[in-house]
From TrEMBL:
Pfam families hit by this protein: DPRP (PF04244)
Name used for this protein in its record: Cryptochrome/photolyase family protein
PANTHER family for the chain: SLR1343 PROTEIN
Length: 514
């Protein structure tokens, strides 16, 4: 072989230009790596999904007559990525090593070290050919340590790629954003109509056994039949299912939460994030397919399709830009100086707060929670109780099927914990129990009373919310979007204010018992 090409677990892009040529002098390397499986404690379904997707990808390349070296944990043992690459390069006597630009800073550092440590090979880095915004354009759209609003970025992306735009340059439907139509709560009558999620059944017994044999610690429910998409065909099937059955109600119920149906965990969400982040499927293709469905199906209105496109063309590309322009500094941010430890029930779901136990429980069961559960249930709780952002990041990075640092970190540390002081969010996503009650049916069957602020049975979020707002008043009161909230607080008499803060302090002091 003259060239070794490295494919990482999140670079399973069959449409990459690498695969257009069929040069028998090129060897593709795909390797299960112990350090990648342990840099954080991952959900067991996430480990299985990545390893199985890699295995299938290697097989697909072989079937297309490419030369592939697939190494399992048995072969790579505890070796680093760099060691594995250099060992294979030496073994096969290649002169060139080719890499795709990694999406995570951790891997970039390893690639930099590889480049500086190898004298025998020429190293070439190519694009991963996945995102819409070219990597080199990130610096024109984002500035380090500066707030950039998603909405402005999103509008530019709509125009640049001519997505949901009329011929006269106006947004289709006349409005850029239909967020206000995306806030319906699921009523009892809506529950029976929620479609079952499309789940796959991939036998992963051999992987469970291998992962255990290599002492890789994990979290979550182990399933011998993996329900996540691990091939391009799976991803296309999931996308087709989404467009037909879920997109007609995607925006409408995007923010709502329920624990009353067997499909509560998935609702109208696409669950395409793993397929997208491992690059089994291309974001442009997902957007195009959804827009075609919108044009062909009268049941899908503009608020549904715009809501979906905004997530992928807007949020997903935006957080990637924010990540790269701010790394490695992003990882050090703790603007609100939050230092408390994450309570143990984040690893068991064992709390009397029904919203938390539902969101955590389903995360452990499925390696999945939808956006509002991540942001407004677990995220909000960590924000209000001032959990150290590093611990919050590690939890999110481990537990979710789609968690890769480039997308997890800006969402967690930035959007949900406000630890960046507002680069991403214009104000903290802090909420009392009232918000959860408005958007879900969690509170009805909760041990705590959502209408109460004080007393032993009061929803902890109610007092914690005011504790948070009062504590950070100096920083937050200047914000015109928040200032008026303090008027409500100031109107209450001193005794009531004292009782609320006392209840909050009790909750903080006894956080493990909530
Ligand atoms: P859908 O609701 O069907 O949305 C469609 C697609 O839009 C998603 O697949 C995803 O690719 C994209 N998308 C939607 N929201 C976002 C967003 N805020 N940022 C980036 N892309 C978005 N997403 C991840 O992919 N990986 C993560 O590690 C991750 N961590 C998160 C942590 C926190 C605290 C929060 C609040 C959000 C996080 N998200 C993350 C974003 C979002 O919650 C998930 O992308 C989404 O829930 C995945 O489920 P889905 O595919 O069913 O999404």
């Amino acid at each position: 072989y003259h060239t070794l090409r490295v494919i990482l677990g999140d670079q399973l892009n069959a449409a990459h230009s690498w695969f257009r040529e069929n040069d028998q002098g090129i060897l593709y390397l795909i390797a299960e790596l112990h350090p990648e499986a342990t840099y954080v404690k991952h959900h067991i379904q996430k480990l299985c999904a990545f390893f199985l997707a890699m295995e299938y990808f290697a097989n697909a390349l072989k079937s297309a007559n490419h030369q592939v070296c697939y190494l399992t944990l048995d072969e790579t043992k505890n070796q680093s990525l760099e060691t594995v690459i250099l060992t294979q390069a030496a073994k096969h006597k290649v002169t060139t090593i080719e890499l795709q630009r990694p999406d995570e800073y951790r891997v970039l550092q390893q690639y930099r070290s590889l480049e500086s440590n190898t004298t025998k090979h020429s190293v070439r880095v190519v694009d991963s050919e996945h995102f819409l915004l070219p990597f080199d354009d990130i610096s024109q759209n984002f500035k380090p340590q500066h707030s950039v609003r998603m909405e402005n970025f999103y509008r530019k992306m709509r125009q640049r790629f001519n997505i949901l735009m009329d011929d006269d340059g106006q947004p289709e439907g006349g409005q850029w954003n239909y967020d206000s139509a995306n806030r319906n709560k699921l009523k009892t009558k809506d529950l029976n109509a929620i479609p079952a999620p499309l789940c796959f059944q991939h036998d992963v017994r051999h992987l469970l056994e291998r992962i255990e044999r290599h002492d890789i610690a994990s979290i979550g429910r182990a399933e011998p039949d993996l329900l996540w998409p691990v091939t391009r065909q799976d991803a296309l099937n999931l996308l087709a299912y989404f467009c037909e059955h879920l997109l007609p109600n995607f925006g409408r119920f995007q923010d709502s939460m329920t624990s009353q149906t067997p499909h509560s965990w998935s609702l109208y969400h696409s669950r395409l994030s793993f397929a997208l982040n491992s690059k089994l499927i291309n974001p442009k293709h997902v957007i195009k397919s959804a827009i075609t469905a919108y044009h062909e199906n009268d049941d899908i209105d503009i608020a549904q399709i715009e809501g979906f496109v905004r997530q992928i063309l807007g949020w997903r590309e935006y957080v990637r830009g924010m990540y790269w322009i701010n790394m490695p500094d992003y990882k050090e941010q703790n603007a609100l100086q939050a230092e408390r430890d994450l309570p143990a029930y984040f690893w068991s779901g064992d709390t009397k707060m029904h919203c938390l136990s539902s969101a955590i429980g389903q995360s452990l069961d499925y390696a999945y929670a939808h956006h509002i559960q991540r942001l407004m249930v677990t995220g909000n709780f960590c924000l209000l109780t001032e959990i150290q952002p590093k611990q919050v990041d590690e939890w999110y990075l481990g537990i979710y099927i789609d968690a890769l640092e480039w997308v997890e970190l800006p969402n967690t540390r930035g959007m949900s914990q406000f630890a960046d002081g507002g680069w991403i969010a214009s104000k903290p996503y802090a909420a009392s129990g009232n918000y959860i009650h408005k958007m879900s049916d969690y509170c009805g069957s909760c041990h705590y009373k959502v209408k109460e602020k004080t007393g032993e049975q009061a929803c902890p979020l109610n007092s914690l919310y005011w504790h948070f707002m009062v504590k950070h008043r100096e920083r937050l009161a200047k914000n015109p979007r928040i200032g008026m909230i303090y008027g409500n607080w100031d109107k209450q008499d001193d005794e009531q204010k004292h009782a609320v803060l006392e209840r909050a302090q009790w909750c903080l002091d006894n956080i493990e018992t909530l």
